[in-house]
Amino acid sequence: ELFTHPLILPCQHSVCHKCIRELLMLNHDDSFDAGSECSLPGSPRSRVPSPSMERLDRLVRSGSVSSPGWRRGSVTPRITTIPCPGCQHDIDLGERGISMLFRNFTLENIVERYRQAARAAVAIMCNVCKPPQVQEATKSCMDCKASFCNECFKLNHPWGTPKAQHEYVGPTTNFRPKVLMCPEHEMEKVNMYCEVCKRPVCHLCKLGGAHANHKVTSMSSAYKILKEKLAKSIHYLISKEDQVKAQITGLESLINQTEENGQLAERRANEHFERLFETLQERKTEMLRSIEQSRSRRLDQLKGQVEEYQGMLENSGLVGYAQEVLKETDQSCFVQTAKQLHVRIQKATESLRTFHPAADPCFDEFVLETSREETLLKEMCFGGVPDPPLIDLSSSRVYNEANIHWRLSEDSLPTDHHVLEYRRQGEGDGDDGSTWRSTERVYGPSTSVSGLEPDCLYSFRVRSSRNSMFSPYSPEVTFHTPPAPAFGFLFNDKCGFSTERLILNKRRDTVESVAGMGFLLAADRVQTGSYLGLDYIIGDTGISQGRHFWAFRVEPYSFLIKVGVASDTKLVEWFHNPRDTSSPRYDHDSGHDSGSEDTCYELSQPFTLLTLGMGKVFIPKASSSSSVRILPMPQRMGICLDYDACRVYFYDADSMRCLYERQVDCSGTMYPAFGLMGSGKVQLEDFSTAKRLTF
């Protein structure tokens, strides 16, 4: 049907006011209160002289003052989403509902011109002339909302009066005002064009509204520029009419070819499967025949053996005959018969002593192993099936979220999309241990999976699709999730940060220590047994409850780096009362032993740290051991702080193997802490710098 009162949606499609009302009623029929009379003053720009539309405006506008959110039974939902009838995309009308949409005056004018052309045979008569001499109208006044002939128009709009300034158009019956008003400021006309948002705005929007900092231009300038662009685009399309027709012809030919080739491919596939079915049927018949022959032969052998043994029973067969022979009194006749009979009885007796069934009832040699064939059938695919992708272990990371990356082989053809599947491993997990869960279609080389449980093993696999054909699955890879959710923070450059010796990048996720002249000048003190001070840096976010995990990478060339946690209550005292950095006790893992002095010193330190350096991890001394345990430094280190249990754990972040744990004094707020000496570099993992948690 022709458009009536069309509105422009954000997707640039137009929809009738009546149609959008029906969509709203259809999608949210249980959230509208049909009897509500709550209303706000409406904007004259989109008000249509219809009671039903005015009522709908009241319903939509009432949502901005009657309800802070969407509650079942409220007048209207705070955020209303409807599908666009043109493109089927969801359109969010926001809090203001229909009132935020512009009227499409251009489309209204097109429809009106079409209707006028359709009514050309029916003249519009003057509304002022008295019958019977009613003249045909030549003008319609938009202010008077009436049509006039030439004489009546002059009489009702004399020169020198305010009516002479009225706006008039050709004869029409449509007297609705065509003034575009601002959706945000209902009484203001739009007179500017926002180049950032690509929409008309009023002067209040520019002065203090949402477009205050946006670049705007005058409406006349925007009109001129857009009109030129549209004219050029239309001219270009018209000039390419022959090319478009040729392309349409080519597309129609491709449609026919696609239909024919699809049917041909379907017939060929059916032929292949029919041959497979015939081959399977032949093999089935042959193998079942061999089983039947073996079964018949064995049954005959066993039945013959049964008959033979039944002959040994009393009053039948051999035993009965022997009993009758014993009754013979003639010696010569008895001897003649008894000799052969005795041989037969001896054979029967021997068979009883060494009894063996005449045939084996087991058919193990006829058991079919079809797993390889089943795998081949499942992997049977067309020649154009894409190769399976490979999950990139070096780029993939798994925390409480998994960020999985994969890559295709260099000679692989382009794919349409990918599907990632994952499952949790473990005994006693029920469906979680065996059921694969899949993501939505992924159109890039990576995707994220959220909602993973801590301290669990997860398997991942991915496959590609091209032209609706899936590749085989990639080899499964397994990741171990951390024992706690990922903790988000960046390096703090405000608290005790040494700008002279430490270099912090702009993102504040990498800190580097450079061995400069000060370190070289102090080399003589290192040789004589003294220790240099560490340059400390802490995280900008603290922990005051719960369990949290963060990971980082330490460059293998790093000379000495200490990692762990620090207490804010002790940090204040530490920075206000600096220790003697020339003392061996400055480094509580140095091995210096001074009895109770060291004990008091360690208790007063704000840091609980583990030492790394030169590609190694130095595990502190245990009370029962006299030597330091040295382990190779992992590619990625992880730390888990259990604030409530007052324990800190140090992990190999790749395998999630705990390397060391110890008690920690969780007084106040705890911060991630790092100490660097000499050349070294620490880089936080992306999941740690994402700032996903808020405290």
TrEMBL record:
Residues 326-383 form the COS domain. One of its GO terms (cellular component) is acrosomal vesicle. The keyword NAD does not apply. Residues 177-219 form the B box-type domain. It is found in: Cytoplasm, Cytoskeleton. InterPro entries: B30.2/SPRY, B30.2/SPRY_sf, Bbox_C, Butyrophylin_SPRY, ConA-like_dom_sf, COS_domain, E3_ligase_FN3/SPRY, FN3_dom. This is Tripartite motif containing 36.
